[in-house]
TrEMBL record:
Name of the protein this chain belongs to: Nucleotidyltransferase family protein
Top-rank taxon: Bacteria
Length: 345
């Protein structure tokens, strides 16, 4: 497998050029429709995605209104708001839920609002929504930065259930660093998705939250075991920077305040490894610190589980064999953690 050829083709596609090799199958596998020409996109899947996004936001209209009425600071993150900012199209990027960012101190009031609006904390089964038990609820909030998901049944056969994830931090659950969430949620602005007005983070804070989320996906042993490393993570970062003129001084100051510089640097660094675009250089320069490169060639979110990569970045991205790689290098404790997460998450 010629990984260098893959990278060259992806760079050509990002510039609007047509490579000699058909990359459709790989890009669909990596959920990178943004790089596909209109005639090669799965138009049926695009239409279904648009219908589902519309249904999700309709289901949350009363929730957002109640948050406003009760002065609960919130922001919608990832999903359609990210797609709008990164790709200029709320429906370009496929997603399966709505993600909210809330202060921990407001979670009880927010939960009651969600329940009043017809949501249930549970999972979808063949029998419908099954509420989580107390153990599962406690595990979710203690082991991650999220509460257990909220689910609502709809009357739409295309999107029969709406899933809302409530995030209480922009860092992941295992992180030693916890974000100053009042600071984060002071930086919001109004937006509109599918005709619904809502709150989102300002671009610099939204970009930091995006990078922290994608750093987690690119370093979590559990997520890498389950899903592998996806090109879509780096497409989001690249096109966000390409299509938004961020204030790099404000970005640097916010990163420093949140102790996020090295994690954001990691994401932009590997984004540049893929796209090799000069527009990323000023961002890398602004974010660089004495410790910027310490995270670059290792994986694992906790210090005790961090291990060096023994394969190249391109191989991690394109080989599709990370599970086999991990079977050789993970400890019994790591494998047990994956098993527990699979059972309870």
């Amino acid at each position: 497998m010629n990984y260098d050829e893959f990278l060259n083709n992806i760079r050509m596609l990002s510039r609007g050029e047509t490579p000699g090799q058909d990359m459709t199958e790989l890009l669909q596998t990596h959920n990178c429709g943004c790089l596909l020409s209109q005639e090669k996109r799965d138009l049926t899947a695009d239409t279904l995605n648009k219908i589902c996004i519309g249904e999700r936001f309709r289901a949350c209209k009363a929730v957002f209104a109640a948050f406003e009425e009760n002065n609960i600071p919130y922001a919608v993150i990832k999903g359609a708001v990210l797609s709008e900012m990164a790709y200029g199209d709320a429906f370009c990027r496929r997603s399966g839920d709505i993600d909210l960012l809330l202060l921990r101190e407001n979670i009880d009031m927010a939960k009651q609002i969600m329940l009043n609006c017809g949501f249930v904390q549970g999972r979808v089964t063949d029998e419908g929504i099954v509420p989580f038990n107390r153990r599962e609820l406690l595990f979710q909030i203690s082991a991650s930065h999220q509460t257990a998901p909220f689910i609502k049944k709809t009357a739409n056969p295309v999107c029969p259930y709406v899933n809302v994830d409530v995030n209480l931090d922009i860092f992941w659950g295992e992180s030693d660093v916890k974000a100053d969430m009042p600071f984060v949620l002071e930086h919001t602005e109004c937006a509109e998705i599918n005709g619904l007005k809502l709150k989102k983070l300002t671009p610099e804070l939204e970009f930091i939250a995006l990078c922290l989320h994608h750093y987690k996906d690119a370093n979590s042993i559990y997520l890498l075991w389950q899903k592998g490393l996806s090109l879509s993570l780096f497409c989001d970062i690249y096109f966000y920077l390409k299509n938004n003129r961020l204030n790099l001084q404000s970005l640097k100051a916010a990163c420093r305040h949140l102790q996020a510089e090295d994690f954001v640097y990691y994401c932009v660094y590997y984004c540049n490894e893929i796209f090799n675009d000069g527009l990323l250089a000023p961002c890398l320069e602004a974010l660089k610190t004495e410790t910027s490169e310490r995270n670059l060639n290792a994986f694992g979110l906790e210090k005790a589980e961090r291990k060096p990569w023994n394969i190249s970045f391109a191989e991690r991205l394109f080989s599709g064999c990370l599970k086999q790689y991990f079977e050789k290098v993970l400890s019994p404790e790591d494998l047990q953690k994956i098993k527990i997460n699979s059972e309870l998450m």
